[in-house]
Amino acid sequence: MKVLNPIVISGREVLPLIEGGKGISITNGRCSGAWAAAGGVGTFSGVNADSYDASGQAIPQIYRGRTRRERHQELIAYAIDGGVTQARLAHEAAGGQGRVHVNVLWEMGGAEAVLNGILEGAKGLIHGVTCGAGMPYRLGEIAARHRVFYYPIVSSSRAFRALWKRAYHRVADWLGGVVYEDPWLAGGHNGLSNSENPSEPEPPYPRVLELRQDMRASGLGHVPIVMAGGVWFLREWQDWIDNAELGPIAFQIGTRALLTRESPISAAWKQRILELKKGDVFLNRFSPTGFWSSAINNRFIQELTARSQRQIPYSTEAIGEHLTRLELGSRRRVFYTTATDAARAEGWIRRGFTEAMRTPDQTLIFVTLEKAHQIRTDQIECMGCLSQCRFSNWAQSETGTTGRKADPRSFCIQKTLQCAAHGDDVDDELIFSGHNAYRFASDPFYSNGFIPSVRQLIERVVTGD
Fold first, then answer.
1. Helix (H/G/I), strand (E/B), else coil: 386
2. Which of 27, 152, 142 minimizes the C-alpha distance to 86?
3. Alpha carbon distance 47, 131 (integer Å)
4. I want to staple 262 with a disulfide (CB 3.0 to 4.6 A). Which of 34, 170, 378, 381 is the partner?
């Protein structure tokens, strides 16, 4: 294994090891501060982070506004307070070592207001901002205004070219690095484009090399590229280290960072990922963002899969092949479909899936009465956690809507991620994960259920294992 030499990240020489930032309360100030204290880069989540009461308990994020827009403003206030709280905790835990970054999602609700609020409220405590889930054109401008470095997350050189030409060239001095996130291996939301096949992964080296070539053409040969997604043993990546063709490289540790003593996920979650098998992480497109995402294939994902499978196209009048009449629901609404699909629908109804819910794609899905009630309640209680949401049809526009019908095939992502972060249910909530999580079960470092501290993990990673 090659020696892993420090590189300059956010203005200081540190180990080129970066904690992967994760969503709601999954990377917090405690664990990110520990990463910095061990000489690396810690990344806490700025997505609706936790604040605490006087006794140190997380303050529940309860929404009292009568309208979506009122609840959206509450969400922004919670997010800013929580982000500043976690920045202070990270700064204290770091003890002046390493670097502390905040991770935000460009497509989250109120992204610009939240990021500005956190950076203003935690002035001097945060050294960099990582940002993905969309095309964050204004990220560089915001970071430069607050004098912190910025790290856009991309999954192709084409995406970075667009960001650079449109906006980043104006604030090049504050570009701390570019995160290449492998769209087939990373956890959470993935940057697969419509031209890429989710079942045919491409090797990262040629894609990262293309990114480096584009960066060199723009005078950015010295700016680090952060490899994210699929990084487990560094010995598997040693050809990337001190590689003149690739230039300066850092590695983002996302999935392995979940299993440390400082990691805030529940004991049940930690035990679950120790038991995963290859293929247990599922690439799906159920997210209300519309992006692909990677999550553990548990009952939550299986219910969404089954929900979409109980689906038929329909028309509101007899036309074409849609000639068979269906009367559905307590109001006996009339739909027309094919004879085959009508028979399928009647079979689902006999099994208890009595409620037909319309989708934006002129189809019906069939769910139980209980599930239909849950879906409608979650849609009504939307607090605008995304810039636009296909589940509730919320959008951060003057109209407050996407203009499309709410989609019952999706789910309230804020609700399930909050439950996952603050509870111990790993079966009926969304549990994001990288595709390499199955390696916990065979990695001897975790034998007999051993859970390392952040420092022990970093010391292990540096050896190549």
1. strand
2. 27
3. 11
4. 34
